[in-house]
Amino acid sequence: MAAETGTPTTLTLKSNDDELFSVAESAAILSVTIRNMVEDGCAGGVIPLDNVDGKTLASVITYMNGISAIPADEEKKKSYRDKFLSDKDFETLADMVLAANYLNMSCLMDAVSAKIAQVMEKKSVGWVRRKFGIENDYTPEEEAAVKEEHKWTFEGVETDDDN
Amino acid sequence: MADRSGKPRKRSRECRSSSSSSSKELLVIGDADRLSRLPQEIQSDILCLLPITDAAKVGLLSKTWRSTWLSLPKLAFDYRTFPEMEKKVKFIDQTLARHSKSSVKTFELHLVPLIKIAWMKFATRHNVEKLVLYGEIKKNKYLPDCIFTCRSLVKLDLALHGHVLTFPETVSLPNLRKLKLKHLVLYEPELSQDPFSIFPALEKLSIFHCTIHYTEILSVSSLRLIHFTMVKMLTRGVIALTTWPSQREALQLPNVEFLVDFDTGVDFRCLDDVCIKNFGGEAIERMLVRYLLANSSDLTLMTIFMNDVMANGMLSKISEILGYEKSSPYADVIFN
Predict the structure, then answer these.
(1) What does the pLDDT look like over A29-42, one tens digit per residue?
(2) Which chain B residues have a beta carbon less than 8 Å from that of A153?
(3) Is residue A4 within 8 angstroms of chain B, CB to CB?
């Protein structure tokens, strides 16, 4: 296998919008999906990642490089993750969690999930729906019934601020 | 915050899908609602990170999210996070009534002034693995028997103010590995002398802020026990020698934290490494040390962390303790 030659191996990843990215194998195998491909010997040419677009993949690769450069120090890794996610907008977070899921990267997955939860906390239903572009698939009657069930959630203080 | 920096370059969904050259159709559909495309398991993980009232709110977003909300594997009701509302009890009742999954791995109640028996039964019926009951149950009522025959239970935290702990005649908790008891009363006629031996898989036992009335020794024995913690007891009773004075005031001790690590775990005779924190050197505390030294034949190390009270006549107390009889020839006593 390539990894046995001792020199750092580079993989080429292809996003679903045909952008190509080079990344060190040692960083890329943070993704279990990619690691499995490498181990199965399917990583020779270009690795197509059909569920990740170029912009998201670029971000994920930044993360892979950043986190793999940190030695085994959970504190430092955590603060890197926090910093990495701090400037991401909602769409990016949504894309990122999908990508992390597809790529099977549990550490990124957990961090993005936590970030999304943090964003959703104490916000109104309408706000979350707007920010994450969640499609309201209730019929008006259904929605009224569901709202009735949870009448209290519309009571009390809700912040809709963006911060 | 996150949104602010995102704003200037924010792309509308339409603009995004037209700008991506290939695989357009998929993106157009998918982009409409990215989060809802996540596998339910991951939606679940996100909701489980939210206070339950917020999770319920997200459950209103759409049918997909509603179905995730109704099948959450973790239900943690914490009265501190409820918004100002009168209907907390109703909310719990309704949430449980609508829950659609047959298993709920984690069920937690925090600071609930009156825990309903029905809620506890819900948990055991849903094969709960981690059960936290923090609050109060009806005075003079027992915990329902179903808790003690819940075969799925792995971790049980009971923090019930002033509740006298009793175990029913039939106890079957073959998988219980962690037991935490807080603010309970452990009372000898209600509990046996060796009350925890009925849990065959118990690995970790923690007893915090409990009131213990034992006239004889309360033994703690379990074949699997590897970690035992006692913190801030109202009596020093756990290793109660003979009879302790019954007045609580006389026994209220300075927050002694008493941590014991078992090597193999049967009884206190197998103690290997003992650590006593916040040691004030009072007579009753010295008795505890004396008892442990006299009875722990495998002891190798006892570390005593002294507090300010100990400063009074420290040297004479230390020399007294060092003179205690030790049943283990290898035991070292270190003061810190």
Answers:
(1) 999 999 998 888 77
(2) 53, 56-57, 60
(3) no
